[in-house]
Fold these 4 entries.
Entry 1:
Amino acid sequence: MIHARLVLLAEAGEDMEKIGRSIEPDNLPNMNLLIGEGCLSLQFSIQKPGTLLTTMDDLLMNIKIAKETLSVAEDR
C-alpha cells in the first residue's frame, strides 16, 4: 500500500475552503481532505504506483479547474 499526501498552499486571495469543497465530490473512499487556514491537504492510499500517478494527475487537474472557475465567478 502506498500512502500519499498532497499539500497545497494558498496564493494571495485564494479561498482554499472553496477550492477544497469544489473537489470534495471527486474524493474516493480512501481519501481524506483537510482544509486549514491557507492550505489544503489530501491524504490517500493507493495500491499501485501507476494508480498513484493517475490519481495525482486527476487531483491536480480538478484543483486547477476549480481555481479557474472560482476566479471567473469572482470576476463577474
Entry 2:
Amino acid sequence: GVIYHVPLNSFTLNIGGFVDKHFAERIVEIDTKGLAKGYKNSTSKSAIGFHGFIGPEFAVNEHMSLAGEFGYRNAEIKNFTGAEEFIPEELTVDFSGTYFAAWFRYRF
C-alpha cells in the first residue's frame, strides 16, 4: 500500500490506499441423511480487494500521538459454492463498506 503524510499546523493528515487479500471458508457438518452432524467438509476461497483511507494524527509529544482514520473497503468473494452436495447454492461474502478506527500510538 501507499500512505502519504501531509504535515499541517497542529496535526498530520494521512491519506493512503492498499491492496488486500481476503479469505473465507465455508464448513458444512451433516450426515448422509442430512440430519445430524456426522462429518465435516469445507471449501475456501479468496479474493483481492482494495481500500483507501484518510485521517488525522495529533502529536501529544515527540513519543505519543492520537490518530484516527475513516476509510472504505471494496472486497467481495463471489461464486462461493457450497462445500457439500446437499447445500449447492452459491454465496457472496462481502467485506465491503466504510469503517472508522482510532488509536493511541507510542514511539520508542
Entry 3:
Amino acid sequence: MKKANIDVREAMKEKHIPTWGVALVLGVHENTVLRRIRTELSPEDKQNYIRIIDELAKENTPINN
C-alpha cells in the first residue's frame, strides 16, 4: 500500500522540518498533522503544507536544528 502525501513527507524530511514545526504554524497539535497526512490531502491543503515547509526552511529558525 502506498503512503499518502509522500511529497509532503519527503519535503519535511529533506528540509529537516519536524512535524511539530508545521503544527506550530497551523496552530494545531503535531498529532493532528500526522493524522491529517494519513489520507491524501486535497490539492489546496497539500500546497499549503508545502508552502509552510518551504517558509520554515527559508527562515532558518531553530526548528531546523
Entry 4:
Amino acid sequence: MRRILVDECINPRLATQLRSSLPQSSVDTVRDLGWAGQRDHVLIPEIEGRYDVFLTIDKGFEFQHDLKKLPFGIIVLTTANNQMPSYERLLEELARQIQHVSPGHLVHVIDPEY
C-alpha cells in the first residue's frame, strides 16, 4: 500500500480518481489535512514518515530541495490546465509511476496534450 499526498495546487477531484484507480493505496490532500497555505519547509516535515509519494505541479520543487534526503518520492504533474480532463489523460501513467517512484526520487508525468 502506498500512502499518497496530493498538493493543494492540484484539482482535489484527482484524489477521488486515484482512490478508485488505486484501491490498495491511501490518498489524502493537503487541503483535507488542513495544511493548505503551508510553505514547503513546513510541509515537508509533515510529509516525512506519513507518506510515500507527494504529487505536485510545482516545477521548481526539484531545484529547491535536496531530493536525496527526502524519505518520499515526488511526482510533478504537468497538465494543460487544472481541469479534470487534463488529469484524466495522464491517470494511467500517474498510477504506474505512483507504484514505482522511490524515496528521494522525482518523476515527471506530463499530459500528452500539454
